[in-house]
Amino acid sequence: MEEEYRILENSVKDFNSKYLDNIVLKIEKEGIPEQVRKAMLEQGFLGMVQLLDGNKVMDKKALSIIIEVLSTSSPSVAMEVFLTNVLFHKLADEQSINEVSQGIKRGTVAFAELMSGYDNENELHMESEKLIGTKKYVLNSDADLIIASATDGNLYIIKSGFKEIETHRKLGFRGLKFGKVEFNTKDYVKIGTKEDLVKAYEEAHPFITALAIGIAEGSLMKAIEYSKVRSAFGNLLKDFQPIAFPISMQYNELSMLKNSLYLALSNESETADILFLKMKSIELAKEITKNSIQVHGGYGYIEDYGVEKFYRDIMSLSVLLYNEEEEKKKLASKLYETEAGYI
Amino acid sequence: MDFEMDEEMISAINKAKEFAEKYFTEELADKMDREEQFPMELLNYSNREGLMDYSNPWKILVTIEELCRKDPGLGISTTVPAFGSEVLMLYGSDMLKEKYLDPVLKGQKIMGLAVTEPGGGSDVASSKTEAKLEGDYYILNGAKMFITNGGIADYFVVLARTSPPPSPDKRHRGMSVFIVESKWEGFKANKIHGKMGVRATNTAELVFENVRVPKENLVGEEGKGFYYIMTFFNISRIYVAAQGLGVAQGILDRLMEHIKKYGPVNSQGEPIENIQFKLAEIATRIEASRGLTYKAASYLFKFNPNPVLTSMAKYYSGETAILASKVAMEIMGLKALNSELERFYRDARILEIWEGTSEIEKLIISRMMLKGGK
């Protein structure tokens, strides 16, 4: 990793120890506190996209590092950074980007319709120039600005005239609101089509990978630390092969994936490569978060030890940002250079 | 060899199914999960309707399975009020049985087993809780952790050290089992909050500060406690295997329903094969778990326990339940995230931890096999 990124990584780690590590549980229960949001703004975490000559520019590697490191401590905070920079800023108009980057407003994107299991009885639609209907499974459903597609195939940024009408269950990312939002408004701007939403999601794969790697790393580090100090049957846990072997294998697999991600971001790798990295990272993170609970035994099952949340968060991430069937179909079709894997 | 169930078991399954349908509403399951509350009213209904027939262990086993199939948190809570009572059944004096066991089996009192200690986990022999004989009383000091029914039980079966181990490699010696009443002076229970799942079950840390335990509350012989507890685990692990079976089957039920309704399907209108394969794998593992669990139970219920099979059943059914919850979440996606499946996913994870982690089960299996045990 180049020096400038190493410095960035360390500064985000400092941010974690200063602002997040001690209040991770509080964030899970009460949401992201204002002082943390303020610090995030000061660090520029919510404004990683810059407008240069009308073009949106961002340092993908830097953003990936920020998301990954934040995710090792608080996946909820990392998800907020992801939603804001990777999806919202990518799609929003200039005014909205400025408002969110400066902390005047909070923005989110309703993207769940791209995932499997999406169901909604009253989808957002245009009626007499008003946007009416609902969006389900909206992360940050208490945001001030929401980007959402309507049944007319267009993508809108909606600035008022909506409210959360139902809170969904929260398996993971409990620091963020998650619910169903009802719209009845004329206060919107058309910013593109649903295709733009799909494209934004496809371009988000490296950052979803970073989220998954961060979750895996946060969980794995807890297991490593615990196994160094906890004894059973007269030995430290780390001395037992069934503990040490999986942990060390997972550590090395994770390091490989992390390096591959940085390499892919530096080389502007092909979409399929990134997609594969994302799948492997999510799968590995599921394995690691499951094992880390096991290493902690009963303590891993209670929130105070900060391990179980990673197990919940990675499954939420998988459901919210990984459409397994569709994405595996894409990989297979690329290999065969024709449609494949559809039966 | 006959794999058919007899009428009595079928009737127990139907009774449990009806009970769960009637009382395990999603509203109650969700509320108890959110508020971390033990569903005490379910125990009243269970007693009134004679749900737990302790005279036939097969009926208990299938009842646990069926109730956990509907909801793990409520299912376990409803079937665990006599937890630890088998130690009394096997080793308790007539006086202890009459005083403590009878009211528990009649549903009038709740029991818990206090073995695990803070920092002790699977290493039962590292127990630090001490009981010193002074006159007609043992003076009990120490702490226990992750105790099921800890905050609601009237009586506890407590493992404590009564004499130092003769050598470091014989730490399991010198331990004894006592019956302790929660109303006694010096006893304190601190409820554990913030469990990831099975939040309807009551779990607590217990503290014993100079608790005076009458001599006659010693269960069996002094110094044999470790063996009694290991024998108990051979029983309780069968029931935990049944919990795993029920949880896995409940997940499969919901997954099948989802696939039939939503697919996704291929151009021939059949569910896509990747999903069919996953479904087949889960269903096969559940049947394998059931075979293992019932086989282990058949040995145990004929008073000829087979620890190898018991450990296989416990670890495999727990692992299957966890795998099923993962696969179901992945296939059902957003529908699962906002449904009871989300709770099953959190609940299932405990099954490879409590009553002996999967690692401990695997060690039991291999060590006993290598020693030529069954």
List key phrases describing it.
heterodimer; A: 343 residues; alpha+beta; Butyryl-Coa Dehydrogenase, subunit A, domain 1; Butyryl-CoA Dehydrogenase, subunit A, domain 2; Butyryl-CoA Dehydrogenase, subunit A, domain 3; 4-stranded mixed beta sheet; 4-stranded antiparallel beta sheet; 55% helix; globular; B: 374 residues; 3 domains; 52% helix
CATH topology of the largest domain in chain A: Butyryl-CoA Dehydrogenase, subunit A, domain 3
Based on helices, strands and strand pairing, what is the structural class of chain B? alpha+beta
Number of domains of chain B: 3
- CATH architecture assignment name of the largest domain in chain B: Up-down Bundle
Write down how many β-strands of chain A occur, each being a DSSP E stretch of 2 or more residues. Answer: 12
Largest sheet geometry of chain A:
4 strands, mixed
CATH level-3 fold name of the largest domain in chain B? Butyryl-CoA Dehydrogenase, subunit A, domain 3
Strand content of chain A: 15-25%
Unreliable runs of chain A: none
**Total separate domains of chain A:** 3
Report the count of strand segments of chain B. 8
Low-confidence stretches of chain B: none
Question: What does the average pLDDT of chain B come to?
Answer: 94
> What value does the average pLDDT of chain A take?
94
DSSP summary: helix tally of chain A: 12
Describe the protein in words.
The complex is a heterodimer of chains A (343) and B (374). Chain A is globular and about 75 Å long. The model of chain A has no long low-confidence stretch (mean pLDDT 94). Chain A has 3 domains: 3-106, Acyl-CoA dehydrogenase/oxidase, N-terminal domain (Butyryl-Coa Dehydrogenase, subunit A, domain 1, Orthogonal Bundle), CATH 1.10.540; 112-193, Butyryl-CoA Dehydrogenase, subunit A, domain 2; 204-336, Butyryl-CoA Dehydrogenase, subunit A, domain 3 (Up-down Bundle), CATH 1.20.140.10. Chain A contains 12 helices and 12 strands. Chain A starts with a helix and ends in a 7-residue tail after the last helix. Chain A is of the alpha+beta class and 343 residues long. In chain A, 55% of the residues lie in helices and 16% in strands. In chain A, the strands form 4 sheets. In chain A, strands 3-6-7-10 form a 4-stranded mixed β-sheet. Chain A has a 4-stranded antiparallel β-sheet with strand order 4-5-9-8, with no helix packed on it. Chain B is of the alpha+beta class and 374 residues long. Helix content of chain B is 52%, strand content 14%. Chain B contains 13 helices and 8 strands. Chain B has helices at 7-23, 26-35, 40-48, 57-70, 72-79, 85-91, 94-105, 225-262, 273-300, 307-332, 334-337, 340-348, 358-370, and strands at residues 111-114, 130-134, 137-148, 155-161, 175-181, 187-191, 203-214, 218-219. In chain B, the strands form 2 sheets. A 4-stranded mixed β-sheet of chain B has the order 1-4-5-8. Chain B has a 4-stranded antiparallel β-sheet with strand order 2-3-7-6, with no helix packed on it. In chain B, strand 2 (130-134) and strand 3 (137-148) form a beta hairpin. At the A-B interface, strand 11, helix 10, helix 11 and helix 12 of A face helix 9, helix 10, helix 11, helix 12 and helix 13 of B.
